[in-house]
Amino acid sequence: MFGFFNQNPNQASSPASRDLRWRLIYVLIILAVYRVGVHIPTPGVNTEALAVFFARFQGTLLGLFDMFSGRALSQFSIFAMGIMPYISASIIIELLTVVWPHLGRLKKEGGQDGRRKLTQYSRYLTVGLSLFQGFMLAVGLERMAVDERTSVVIVPGLSFRLMTTLTLAAGTCFIMWLGEQITERGIGNGISLIIFAGIVEALPSAIGGVVKGVGQGEQSILAMVVLTAGMILIIAGVVFCERAQRRISVQHAQKMVGRQIVAPRSVHLPLKLNPAGVIPPIFASSLIMFPATLGQFMDHPFFKTMSDWLNESSIIYNLIYVGLIVFFCYFYTGVQFNPTDVADNMKKSGGFIPGIRPGQKTAEYIDRVLTRITLWGALYVSFICVMPSLVRTQFRVDFWFGGTALLIVVGVALDTIAQIQSYIVNYQYDGFLKKGLSGMGKIKPRRQL
Fold first, then answer.
1. Cα separation, 306 vs 441, whole angstroms
2. Which of 381, 194, 425 shows the shortest CA–CA distance to 279?
3. CATH for 14-201?
4. Domain over 206-401 is classified CATH 1.10.3370.10
C-alpha cells in the first residue's frame, strides 16, 4: 500500500501516487507544527513547580486531559487545553440535534449546507468553551503551589488571567484550524490525527521505562516477553473487534424505471460491534475520576474517602467503571442510531428485510439486533479499559497500555488506512472513466452503405 515511497526513480510515478505522497507530507508538516507548539510555554508560569505539582495528579481528570493534549497541560504550553473544547462542543451539538428540532432538521434534511451550519455552530461553541475553560484554568493555576514558598504562577493578578485566557483560547482555535486543514488538504480526520499524535508521543518514553526496569532487575525478562506477546494479541483483538460488523440483508423488489425493469437487488445494512467508538470510556473516565480530582484539591474527609474507595486497583472502581461504560455505550448508540428512521427510509426506498414486515416490525427487529450487538461491544470496550490496571497490578510495570488510548490509536490508524485505500481506488476509477470517455470520442461512425 505504501509502495509509492519505494518507486524506481527512472519510472514516472502516477498522478495518484504523487498526490497521495504530497498529502501525507502535508499531514506530517501539520503534525510537526502541532508538536512544536506543545513545547512553547505560556508566559508567567513556573514550569518546574508545575511539573512537581502535576506529578500528584496521575489517575485524575487532569491526568486524563493531559494525555489527550499530548502532555501539553502538564507543561502548560499554549496548547494546554488541546482539542478537548472542540470535542466537547461537537458532542454538545450532536446531542442537541436530538432535542432541538431546528438542529435536527439541519442534520437530517439540510444536506451539505446543513452539515456546514452545524460545523459553524461547533466552532462558535468551541470559542466560548475555550474562553471559559481558559479563565478557569488561569484562576485555578493561581491557587496551585508546591509549598508555602513556591507558587506555580510567578505574578498572579488580573493581567495574568486575561493573558492566559486569550493565549489558551487562541491555542485551541489554532489546533482546530490545523485539524480542519488536515481533513481538507491531507488524508484522514484531522482532529483524530492530532489526538493520535499526542498519545503516540508518550510511547517511546514508556517503552524506554520498561526496558530500563528490565535492565535494573526490577522486572524479569520472561515477564516482559509474556507481556509483549499479550500486547500483540490484544492489538490484534482490538483491530478485529473494531472492524467487526453484523450485516443485515436488505432486499429491494424489482421496479420500472422508464421502460426498463430493474431486477431485484440485495444489499446489507452494516451494524458495527462498537458503534459508539471511544465516547463511552471518555465519559466514564471523566465521571469516575471527578471525586479523585476533588480529593486532591479539597481537604474534606468525604472527598478523601471517596478518593480512596475509587482507587484504580480496587474492585469498586472497576465495577463502577464497567457499569458506566455499558450505560454510555447504550446511551450514545441510541443517540446516534435511530432504528425507526432507518426502517422508514428503507420502506420509502422499496427495501425490506426478508421475513420481516416493513415499518414498525422492521424497526423492532433492528433495535433488537442492535441491543445485542451493543452489549457485546460494551463488554469488549470495558475489558480493554480495565486491562491497564490489571497489567500494572500483576506485572508491576508503569506502562499505560490499553484503555481509551489504545482504542483511539487503533481506531484512527484503521480509519486513516481505509481513507488512503479509498483515495487510491477513487483516483484510479476516475482515471478509468476519463480514458473511457476520451476513447469513445475517437470512435468513427460506421459508414452507411
1. 77
2. 381
3. 1.10.3370.10
4. yes
